[in-house]
Write a structure and sequence with these properties.
Length: 281
C-alpha cells in the first residue's frame, strides 16, 4: 500500500461516518413525518347504475401537507355533467398541489371552488351543465372540508354517522319556511321540488362553497366518507353501518357498498360513488 493510500484512509473513514450520520438523520426525519402524517387507507367504489353515462368523477392525492379526496357528481338532468364533474375535481387537485401552507386551507377551498366554477362556465360556452362537489383533506388528526350541492361528507365513528356538510337543496329552504310559519310541515315534506339543487358548480349565480369554520378533529378508528346521492338514496344508514362496522380494509368496504347498491337492482339507479379515508394510527 502506497503512502498516498495510507494517508487517504482516515479521510475515507471520516467521509463514511459523515454519510452514515446523514442517512440516519434522513431516516429519523422520514419516521417523524410518517408519525405526523400516517398513511391514509383509501377505498373507492363506483357504479354507473342505470344511467347511460357516468357523470360522477373522483380523485385523491397526497402531498407533504396531507391527503385530499374529491368527489363530484355531474348533474344528470343537465347536459355535460361529466365535463363539469371532471373539471371540478381536476381543478381542486391541481390547486391542492400548489398549496404551500396547510394554514391556508380555507382560502384553498374558496379559491378552488371559484376557479372550478369559472372553468366549467367557460368550457360550457353557454350550454347547460353543472356538478356537486365534496372535498376532504386530512392533515395529521384533523379533517378540513368543503362542499357544494347534495353530495355528502360524513364521519363514521363508533358505529354512527356524524354529518359534516349541509346539502344545498330546496328542502333546506322549505324547512326554514316551515320553521317561520310560512308553510305547513306537510307542504314542506310533500313539495315536488324539495330535492332540487339551489347551488352547484357551473352555475352563473354560484354563491359560495360551504367550508368548515374549524377543522373536524378525528379520533382513532374514524372513517371519513364521501359519497354521491346514488349511494345514500339507495342504501339505508343501517345497511351502510353494517358494512363500515366490519374490521376490513377501506377498499373492501367500498367494494361491498357498491355491491350492495347494485344488488338493489333499482330501475332508476343513479350513478353511485363512494370514497373512504381511514387514517393509520
Amino acid at each position: 500500500m502506497s503512502m498516498f493510500q495510507q494517508g487517504a484512509i482516515p479521510y475515507l473513514i471520516v467521509l463514511g461516518v459523515i454519510i452514515a450520520i446523514t442517512l440516519l438523520f434522513r431516516l429519523r426525519a422520514a419516521l417523524i413525518r410518517q408519525e405526523m402524517n400516517p398513511v391514509i387507507q383509501i377505498g373507492n367504489g363506483q357504479t354507473i347504475g342505470r344511467r347511460e353515462e357516468q357523470d360522477d368523477y373522483f380523485s385523491t392525492a397526497t402531498s407533504s401537507h396531507g391527503t385530499i379526496a374529491v368527489l363530484a357528481d355531474g348533474i344528470s338532468g343537465l347536459a355535460n355533467g361529466r365535463l363539469a364533474s371532471t373539471l371540478a375535481v381536476t381543478t381542486f387537485i391541481r390547486e391542492f398541489t400548489k398549496l404551500d401552507n396547510p394554514k391556508h386551507m380555507s382560502l384553498f377551498f374558496s379559491r378552488a371552488a371559484s376557479l372550478a366554477n369559472s372553468e366549467i362556465l367557460q368550457a360550457l360556452r353557454g350550454s347547460r351543465g353543472g356538478t356537486t362537489l365534496v372535498a376532504g383533506v386530512i392533515v395529521e388528526d384533523k379533517l378540513y372540508w368543503g362542499a357544494v350541492g347534495d353530495s355528502i361528507i360524513t364521519v363514521f365513528r363508533n358505529g354512527e354517522f356524524i354529518p359534516i356538510n349541509q346539502k344545498d337543496i330546496y328542502e333546506s329552504v322549505l324547512e326554514a319556511r316551515f320553521l317561520s310559519g310560512e308553510i305547513t310541515k306537510d307542504e314542506a315534506l310533500e313539495h315536488p321540488q324539495k330535492k332540487q339543487l339551489i347551488n352547484y358548480l357551473g352555475y352563473e349565480n354560484f354563491q359560495n362553497i360551504e367550508i368548515g369554520r374549524e377543522p373536524f378533529p378525528l379520533e382513532k378508528g374514524d372513517k371519513v366518507i364521501l359519497c354521491s346521492d346514488g349511494v345514500y338514496d339507495t342504501l339505508t344508514e343501517m345497511e351502510l353501518e353494517q358494512i363500515l362496522f366490519q374490521n376490513i380494509a377501506a377498499h373492501d368496504a367500498a367494494d361491498q357498498i357498491i355491491e350492495a347498491v347494485e344488488s338493489k337492482q333499482k330501475a332508476n339507479q343513479d350513478n353511485a360513488t363512494i370514497l373512504i379515508l381511514e387514517k393509520g394510527w
